[in-house]
Amino acid sequence: MKSIEVVAAIIRKDNQVLSTQRGYGEFQGLWEFPGGKIELGEAHKDALKREIREELSVDVEVGDFLHTIEYDYSNFHLKMHCYWCSLDQKIELTEHLSSRWLDKDELYEVEWLDADISLIPLIHDELEKETDN
Question: What are the chain's domains?
Answer without folding.
Answer: 2-132 (3.90.79.10)
